[in-house]
Amino acid sequence: MSAGRTRVGAGLLAYGRELEALGAAQVGGGFVGEPAADQLLRDSPNAFLLGVLFTQGIAAERAWAGPYLLRERLGTLDLRYLAANPEALRDAVQRPPMLHRFKNTLPVWIGAAAAKLLAEYEGDAARIWPPGTDVREVVERLTEFRGVGRKKAVMAAEILVRHFGVELSGREGGQVAFDVHVRRVFLRTGLADIDSREAIESAASTICPEAPGTIDLAAWLIGREACRPRQPRCDACRLGGVCPRLVERNVKGVGVRRKSGSG
Length: 263
Description:
single chain; Endonuclease Iii, domain 2; Endonuclease III, domain 1; 52% helix
């Protein structure tokens, strides 16, 4: 790794360790910023798993508020009810204002997750990640749920360790999520030259081989708050003093407009 990359990596790792020490899961130390919604996620592993399903295609705070708002509309998050009442679930998600842009697929994911938890985990999502489980196994188990790909599973596993203090083993096998904000930071700082999962994960493993996921939240926050697709706030960035500011780099297929008249 070049001297420039080493400095950027060290800065990103220092920020990641600060966040781990604080136990911050999102901006401000909470998921939603609404005490009742955040408390539900802390108290209920099942609600947390449902929140993971919401985290796609909408703002993070809105996504993590999803389980709380869903309970408000249904009056319950009882798994048997969720699994057995697809029409009520669909109505709760689609009723204005809609809880999610994926108005048809999200209710299916939630119902399927409820049924899987009942059938395979005795109705308790915490059984997916009991203390001592290898982080790679937790990621694999999570990806078996409909609507949870690798990116979501990696993110969830890191949150379990960082925010909830779940003692998972094998953190050297953890990773950063292949998220648009994370990818943009890695590209613009020069930590990665190619926008691929392999390149991003290889760079993360080089920076922190004992626990690559340590830098996941740090990169995500920098990408969302400072390293924006347009008009990046480089002077306000934690890495502003060491970053080469390759702001012309962007994530593949994101923020690219088709030319007028193109087919």
